[in-house]
Structures are given as C-alpha cells and as structure tokens.
Amino acid sequence: MSNHKAGYVNIIGNPNVGKSTLMNAFVGERLSIITSKAQTTRHRILGIVNGDDFQVLFSDTPGIIKPAYQLQESMMDFVKSAFEDADILLYLVELGEKELKDEKFFDKIKNAKIPVLLLINKIDQGNEALLAEALKLWQEKVPNAEIFAISALKNFGVPEVFSRIIELLPESPAFYPKDQLTDKPERFFVNETIREKILIHYKKEIPYSVEIDTEEFIEDENIIRIRSIIMVERETQKGIIIGHKGSALKRVGVESRKDLEKFFGKQIHLELYVKVNKDWRSNERQLRRFGYN
C-alpha cells in the first residue's frame, strides 16, 4: 500500500485574478463566492479534496491590498497566515498583470523555501504573443517558481496543476475526516451567499459596509429555516439595502434562497432583516465577533 500524502496548498494574488474560481475548480463545489468586485473574499476559506492516498487542503485568501481600515488589516492577516502553514504556494496572476500590489509579499514569494507554482490565469482572454511575454516576465521575476498557463473559468490547465500538486505533497496522514469538504460551518456559507448577492446588486460603498450575521439555522428532515441579519454602518445604507417597498431586499432573499437550496440540497426558508451596526469595520470587538481575528 502506498504512503499517504497531505498538505496545505495556499492560493494568493492580487484582487480579481480568479482565486475563488480556481479554488472552486479544484474542489468541485462552489465554496468561495465569486463577483467582479475587488475584495469579494474577506476570510481564509479552506476547501478539502480527498483521494485514496492523499488529502489536499486548498486555502483561498483575500486579494492582496494596502489596508485602509481595520477590516482590511484583518483581511491581510489571513494572507500573512497563508505563508506560515503552506506546504505549497500557488501564486495566481492574470494575463497582462505585471506586479503584486505589496512588495513585502512579493519578496516572501521569491524567497519561499517551499514549492511555488506561479499560475498565469485567464489565458482564454489573450493570445500567444501576450502569453509568451507573460511567461518571460514571470520567469525573470520569480525564478524559484514553476509556471503554468491556465484558465480557471474554462478548467484549462487546472488538472495538470492538480497533478503537480499531488506529486509535491509531503507524506502525512489526513488532517480532516475524509468526508469533510471545508473547515467552515454551515452559517458561514449562508452569510457568504447573501453577501455575494449584495456585492452583485449594490454599487459604490454599500457592499463593503455590509456584514451578515445568521442568528438562526434550524435543520429539519426536508427544510432548513434560516434567519439572517444584514448589518450596515449607517441609516441611509439601510434604506438602500431594503429598496422601494422592500423590492431590493426581496431580490437578495430570492436569489440567496435558490443558491442555498442547491448548496444544501434541501428546501430553504430564509428571513432577512437589516440593522445598523455603526462603524463595525473599524471596531476590533465587532471584527472579532465576525471572525476577523
């Protein structure tokens, strides 16, 4: 019988490079929410892929930014932690990108003592000349990395990267039970699904001022009853979230319910409320409560 392998494979990169799409492609489930807005991922999300003789713990982190307030500082702490426990580092860039937003992180990647796979994503949006230029640039910038050209959205090149990850995994017993998909509780995915709809449908500062708190999650044989609070920072934002005669909030609720029914495979009864939680993004106690610690 062959020896068992297991390890942490952490995905880092700038915002909007497709980290969540890649994570979901590896895991085969929609664990990370995906929108076209920067800073969609706020937490570090673990996706577990099991084989007979391996367990890969993929970790999707927030996009690397220069923090402007306490919430963003906490988000960057998740990225820092991704360097500390990684067995393999996936550094994701998109075709045409030339640099990482934070020089310190870039130095860490170049000096990493663990295997680094640099993935040039979204190659379906370019041509051969652009790709040749990108390959040359990144080979010079990160000489310690193995480089792969992929399209996470089209699943092009992703199986090859996965095969290489399996080869590089250290020998180790499994860290989690073999039937477990993630380290996050059900309420986390409820919160993220609702937040995704807000990111899609609301403009400007609104999505970034919102946090979701699921107060009730009661699962029966055929139905899950959920009550969630949408927290905003100001009274004016509350009115925008609710919309004219509640129409905007209703749309968020209907779309969230459909996605949650697919995710949990059960009928969902979802109640949404909106509350003002003043300046929660800059309040350390509130941030701890929402898991940013």
User: What is the fold-level CATH name, i.e. the topology of the largest domain?
Assistant: Rossmann fold
Strand order in the sheet with the most strands: 2-3-1-4-5-6
* Count of all domains: 2
Structural class: alpha/beta
Assign the CATH class of the largest domain: Alpha Beta
Radius of gyration: 20 Å
| Average pLDDT score | 80
Number of distinct helices:
9
Strand content: 15-25%
Q: What's the SSE pattern? A: EHEEHEHEHEHHEEHHEH
Shape: globular
Name the helicity range. 25-40%
The unreliable regions are 31-42
Which CATH architecture of the largest domain would you pick? 3-Layer(aba) Sandwich
Tell me about the biggest sheet? Answer: 6 strands, mixed
If you had to describe this structure to a student in words, what would you say it looks like?
With 293 residues, the chain is an alpha/beta fold. It contains nine helices and nine strands. It has helices at residues 19-27, 70-84, 103-110, 128-141, 158-168, 186-201, 235-242, 247-264, 284-289; strands at residues 5-12, 45-51, 54-60, 88-94, 116-121, 145-149, 211-219, 223-232, 267-276. The strands form two sheets. It has a six-stranded mixed beta sheet with strand order 2-3-1-4-5-6, sandwiched between helices. A three-stranded mixed beta sheet has the order 7-8-9. α6 (186-201) crosses α8. The chain is globular. The model is unreliable at 31-42 (pLDDT under 50). Residues 150-152 are annotated as: G5. Residues 39-43 are annotated as: G2.
